[in-house]
Design a protein that fits this description.
With 330 residues, the chain is α+β, with helices and mostly antiparallel strands. The chain contains seven helices and 14 strands. A six-stranded antiparallel beta sheet has the order 12-11-10-9-13-14, covered by helices on one side. It has a four-stranded antiparallel beta sheet with strand order 1-2-3-4, with helices on one face.
């Protein structure tokens, strides 16, 4: 005769369904079976993770195996973080933007964001290809206000600043901010030959313009260009421009009348201009100051003083130099 299975509580016989449930429980609690250990370890892991997350929420990203991204709540973004004190090398750009806000200016060469701090100093965060901060530079020299002028024709005067925060890296920047303080235009001037430029504020008919003058020479071949422009919508709108090309090697005869006309045209504009920034000749000149020393007189003529007589005007000097250069080139 088969033995009956009995209830755990009480003495009544077990039904068939109850015997099946009891058997499953017995199998699960059979520690000698590998499946039992897997189940037990999984349950303990879930319990442990829940306890860790409840007691220390900061462990959540690492514990779940995700990459931890630094974050900062609004109440942590105070005056200390505004100057970037909590930003270190390796910080993602998205975190820098969260702490510092949108940049006041961006670099056109190296990848980076710049900020103008409340004390007038600047701080620049440089990023690598992975958009992680790899260098932080701060300049205690504030932007210098050079003047105010309505160069974008919106009826309000813009502020013109000289930014020397990147001078150690070989460039100085002229920046123009609108009446709300937004950086609407900028241009760099470098001391390397390719970076030479001169920028002026020019007044014509009671209105303000920007004037760029680039008298370039490469191994005796010259291209001189001036551009008079405004900044409607933050974009350069050319009002007037002219270019002249010539060589001083004697390959071709100089067109003295044409060169005189170009010089007079440029000098008429410079006569109503104020220097803002120049790196011509590999040396910086900062405004606001007179533009007189930038008047075009083709200074390379001074290298051959023996060719000229006292009282020779510019046209005569050009003719004499051209005859000398052509004859020596042959």
């Amino acid at each position: 005769m088969k033995k009956r299975a009995w209830r755990i509580i009480g003495g009544s016989p077990l039904t068939v369904g109850e015997r099946n449930i009891k058997g499953r429980i017995k199998n699960v609690l059979n520690f000698k079976r590998p499946a039992a250990w897997v189940l037990i370890i999984s349950v303990l892991a879930v319990i442990l993770s829940s306890v860790c997350l409840l007691t220390n929420p900061a462990l959540k990203p690492e514990f779940l195996g995700a990459t931890a991204v630094p974050s900062m709540e609004k109440d942590q973004i105070n005056e200390g973080t505004r100057v970037g004190e909590n930003i270190k090398k390796g910080t993602p750009r998205e975190v820098v933007l969260k702490i510092m806000g949108e940049p006041d200016f961006t670099l056109s060469g190296l990848y980076g964001d710049g900020y103008v701090l409340e004390d007038g100093s600047t701080e620049v965060f440089y990023y690598g290809a992975n958009e992680l901060v790899y260098e932080i530079k701060r300049s205690d020299a504030p932007w210098k206000l050079l003047g105010n002028a309505d160069v974008n024709r919106d009826g309000l005067k813009e502020s013109i600043y000289l930014d020397q925060s990147q001078r150690d890296n070989g460039s100085v920047t002229l920046r123009i901010c609108d009446s709300s303080g937004n950086d609407i235009w900028s241009e760099e001037a470098g001391t390397s030959h390719a970076g030479w430029t001169s920028l002026f504020l020019c007044e014509q008919g009671g209105e303000d313009y920007l004037l760029r003058y680039l008298p370039g020479m490469w191994q005796g071949y010259c291209t001189y260009t001036y551009t008079l422009f405004t900044l409607e919508g933050g974009v350069e709108h050319v009002v007037r421009s002219n270019t002249i090309g010539f060589d001083v090697n004697g390959v071709n005869k100089l067109d003295a009348p044409k060169m005189i006309a170009f010089a007079e045209e440029v000098n008429a504009l410079l006569g109503k201009s104020t220097l803002l920034l120049s790196s011509e000749g590999g040396e910086y000149s900062f405004g606001p100051s007179s533009a007189d020393r930038f008047f075009e007189r083709y200074s390379w003529l001074d290298a051959t003083p023996e060719l000229y007589a006292d009282g020779d005007d510019l046209k005569t000097r050009l003719v004499k130099y051209s005859e000398y250069a052509v004859s020596n080139h042959r």
